[in-house]
Amino acid sequence: IVFSPGQSHERLSQHPQGDWNDRISSIQIDEGVIVRVWEDKYFHGESREYRFSQPHLGDWNDKISSLRVEESEKLHHRRSQLEQTLRQKHEELEKLSTIQ
Predict the structure, then answer these.
(1) Is residue 58 part of a domain?
(2) pTM reported for the whole predicted model
(3) pLDDT bucket at 94, cuts 50 / 70 / 90
(4) Pairing of strands 8-9, 66-71
(5) What distance in Å separates the CA atoms of residue 8 and residue 70, rounded to the nearest whole number?
(6) Nearest-angstrom CA–CA distance, 15 and 23
(7) Do the Cβ atoms of 20 and 27 come closer than 8 Å?
(8) Which residue has the higher pLDDT, 79 or 82?
(9) Where are any strands of DSSP class E within the chain?
(10) pLDDT band at 6 (very low <50, low <70, confident <90, very high)
């Protein structure tokens, strides 16, 4: 299954691609992403946070019932900087177009 930042699933047993409740054994995580997992549906029970890929979940193997994918602080900061730069460049272009 693939999730992106901002996505979550509170009941993996009801996932459109099949029942993933208590069936996850590894997690691949891209840079700048945090995956939070819970042992029970609806984000209840014991939880854990992962910031790096886990080829083997150890004692969390086949225990995940809900998860949430979030941007890390670093990725959020980088995205905010890029958005600010784009706004500034857009303003500069607007000024140039009024001069001509």
Answers:
(1) yes
(2) 0.66
(3) confident
(4) antiparallel
(5) 9
(6) 12
(7) no
(8) 82
(9) 8-9, 33-40, 44-50, 66-71
(10) low
Domain that holds residue 64: 8-71
Q: How far apart are CA 12 and CA 69, in angstroms?
A: 14
Worst-scoring range by mean pLDDT, 2-11, 17-26, 69-78, 91-100?
2-11
CA 48 to chain centre: 14
**Number of structural domains, the chain?**
1
CATH number at residue 57: 2.60.20.10
Q: Evaluate whether residue 13 is within a structural domain.
A: yes
Total residue count of the chain as it appears in this document: 100
What Rg value do the Cα atoms of the chain yield, rounded? Answer: 19
> What whole-number distance in Å separates Cα of residue 57 and Cα of residue 28?
11
Token pair 């995956």 in the structure block, residue: 35
What's the one-letter identity of residue 94?
A: E
Q: Output the CA torsion sign for 49, 53, 21, 71.
A: positive
- State the pLDDT at residue 20: 80
Strand, coil or helix: what is 76? Answer: helix
